[in-house]
Recover the amino acids of this structure.
């Protein structure tokens, strides 16, 4: 489900108010969301004819050349205190991602959890305070600002280019940046694929079923990266598959698996 932000105002009173009052209220709301100073907020809104949601979407998708005011560090720290949790076993403190995303109206088990980790450049063990405090640099220090930031993160990864940036980053995320291993754990890889391929790769379930019957499939960086290209390239019926093209052996084996399955139907 996609987050829909609704800006609440008493419609009758607001629309009947003088134009100067309405614009002033819109500027205040825009400042609250973006942390811009008033002159910059007014100038940016003017270029969008004071249409608040259009201006907010434009701001977060392609920030203007004006200097973005940082978020309030104390406000971000208060958010951190509210949503962080201590592990009972080892005492480490990290973001309670499920609670955080739930309060933002997001799917705690969907791809957005991985997208959040990507944007904050966190590690597999969890989003720590140093990662969360990056919201200060993003100019986001309120729940309303976080909602808009998340909404635009959805838009970024809906595009192929944005998705591939996140997807490639995820290889080192689940491998461990300090690990010398050249492959990633299949169980972790499957967990990620189940989330990020949902609604994006029609053959996701076939791919996962194929891996279950393979003997110790090796998920290398090459396999990981090229699979990210493959899901956008291949047609559901494999009508554009060419066995002479250069794909990793594991993807070639998947193609053979699918061709046999499609012929048996």
């Amino acid at each position: 489900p996609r987050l829909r932000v609704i800006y609440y105002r008493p419609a009758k009173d607001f629309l009947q108010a003088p134009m100067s009052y309405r614009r002033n209220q819109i500027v205040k709301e825009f400042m609250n969301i973006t942390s811009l100073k008033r002159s910059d907020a007014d100038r940016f809104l003017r270029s969008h004819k004071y249409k608040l949601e259009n201006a907010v979407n434009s701001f977060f998708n392609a920030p203007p050349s004006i200097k973005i005011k940082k978020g309030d560090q104390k406000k971000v720290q208060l958010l951190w205190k509210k949503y962080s949790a201590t592990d009972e076993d080892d005492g480490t403190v990290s973001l309670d991602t499920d609670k955080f995303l739930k309060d933002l109206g997001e799917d705690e088990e969907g791809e957005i959890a991985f997208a959040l980790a990507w944007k904050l450049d966190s590690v597999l063990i969890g989003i720590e305070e140093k990662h969360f405090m990056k919201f200060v640099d993003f100019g986001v220090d309120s729940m309303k600002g976080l909602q808009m930031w998340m909404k635009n993160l959805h838009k970024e990864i809906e595009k192929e280019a944005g998705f591939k940036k996140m997807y490639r980053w995820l290889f080192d995320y689940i491998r461990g940046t300090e690990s010398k291993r050249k492959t990633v754990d299949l169980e972790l890889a499957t967990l990620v694929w189940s989330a990020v391929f949902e609604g994006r790769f029609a053959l996701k379930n076939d791919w996962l079923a194929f891996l279950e019957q393979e003997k110790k499939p090796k998920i290398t960086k090459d396999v990981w990266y090229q699979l990210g290209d493959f899901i956008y390239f291949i047609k559901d019926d494999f009508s554009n598959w060419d066995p002479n093209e250069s794909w990793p052996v594991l993807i070639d084996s998947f193609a053979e698996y699918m061709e046999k399955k499609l012929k048996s139907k």
Summary: The longest strand covers residues 84-86. Residues 1-12 have pLDDT under 50 and may be disordered. The chain is about 60% helix and 5% strand.
